[in-house]
Model the fold of this input.
Amino acid sequence: MNPSGDLGHLEINIGKLCNNACRFCSNGAVPPEERPWVPVEAVLAEMERGAREGFGSVGFLGGEITVYPQALELVRRARELGFTRIAICTNGRRLANPRRVEQYLEAGVTRVALSIHDNRAEVEDALCGRPGAFAQKVRAIRNLARRQKSLADGFSLNCCIHGRNVDNLIEMVRFFRRLGARDIRLNSLRPENEAAADRDLVPPFSRVIERALSLIDENEARLHLSLSFGDIPLCLWPADFLADAARAARYIGEVRDYDAHVTVFRKSASGGDPDRFRWKDRRIEALKRYTPACRTCGARGVCEGPWIRYVDLYGDSEFGPIAPRPATTPSRGEREPGVTRRRRRLHIMVSRFCNNRCRFCLEDRAERAKEDFSDQDRALEIYPRRDEVIFTCGEPTLNRELADWIRKARDLGYRSIELVTNGRRLAYPELCRALVDAGLAAVTISLHSHLPRIHDRMTSSRGSQQQTAAALRNLLSLRRHFGRPRVTVSTVLTRDNLSSIARTVRWVARLGPDCMVINYVEPENEALANFETVVPRMQEAADALAEIPSPAGMELKIEGLPLCVLPRKAPPAGDREIIYIYRDGRIRRLSPTRCQKKGPPCRTCAARSRCDGVWTEYAKRFGWEEFAPVLPAKADA
Done:
């Protein structure tokens, strides 16, 4: 499970050898060249690659990892490489020996996922193809339960819902709870191996859903476990269940899972031909099937559809489109006021210098000037996702290699290429056109007022407003002709522009950018040094924002203010980034730097779980008197 969504997760398959012979195991059809153990040197090299590329979590699967001769060596090396979450996926039989559990804990394992599929010995042993397997698994669960405080990320049981246990789910989960398990995942059976055409082993979803809902009721009334279900198409859950977003998110496993990137060695004996893929993509592209009903479904892409062989077995008549999109995964336009979503992006640090000297700048100018960003384009090659990249830091357009770096990102297949800029050099149409031709897809341009005297005072740069406004017009002209770039105007809200912010929004909206983001000033670095003249009271900021009508044709977002001071129908907040940077030859996840805290009014606030709170320095200077708990009616507005 992924409670925070913060870590990139790498799964490495160490070969398909196993001490079980499960009737429904997908490895039953594995070609011979993928069965032997992968040489430890190849696995170690793959771990090192993952560490360089910024993965914080690594897992080992097979086959059976506890039978792999160098399993403990892999775990120790993972800890040395700095992985903070180290997981093994196991059938648990060898963990029946408590000494072996201790060895894995000492080596550095932080999480164990153990597969068990029934609470009756005769059923489990028959499914595993090994007499005595059930007894070994039970001892392993007890061993893990006794030592679960030593597992930083806990242990879970992974269970397949099959024809022999579907009518016994409540009793099965009660049994596992008595053994000490508190985290249980139940997946609808993937019809593979002997189960591929066996309706006795593969129950219909209608039966699975009915029993799952009964188990959920039992869990909420008595069991109180971390319980989730996987591989059940969303359209099969009742509408009222999906409508309760918080409840659905607790039980729909895909909402909670890590975004796993998998490495399988297609020539495992030599460690050759590594196949690297995102697990969700592989499931959608090769293992599952969108039915005709999925074509108009609002959950398509979030929901992966049913297993291909399930449709071969039962057809597709039970599936129907969801409209609108389920509450568990609201779209951008459906987000609640002030609620952010997380997105992972690679930040390329482009320039040590800036041609503005903003009185509220977040960057430490002295530290930035010491950096060497000449090899930052190397990050484009080794970042694993190759989806979103932002060119930022200082003023990127001062770097003469910027167009070449953008072109490189495009040629490497990056889906979204964005530039963050003060826009002054983009007042030259030729540079604008060159960057767009290179592949630039989006621009965030900093413009803080429609009034030159205010903008120039904020940037400490005479003439900067006229240049930025000209750049904005150049970008919008290119967008009209070529369909890109997407243009976002970023405005920092300070004492200087507070009284005119509503007029600035109207002025910007008339120009026609895609989006405008108003950021309440963050009191760090330059803004902290100029606190008294830069930082307004938050309630004053909220009053000024309340005067802004919804601009037609332009998305408007607000960042940096707690929910309790926002107007009732405030625009939604922007996206929360998980940032990756290139430093010291490797991709690193940037630690969060948002210096916010929650105080006494937050303790009983209905919006506490989805509000970031107040800037720490602001609370230190002004206290908590202007804040009050949000009542449930407003929290749901």
In short: Confidence is low (pLDDT under 50) at residues 1-6, 324-341, 570-574. Residues 333-594 form a domain with the TIM Barrel fold (CATH 3.20.20.70). Residues 183 and 226 are 5 Å apart (CA to CA). The longest helix spans residues 205-223.
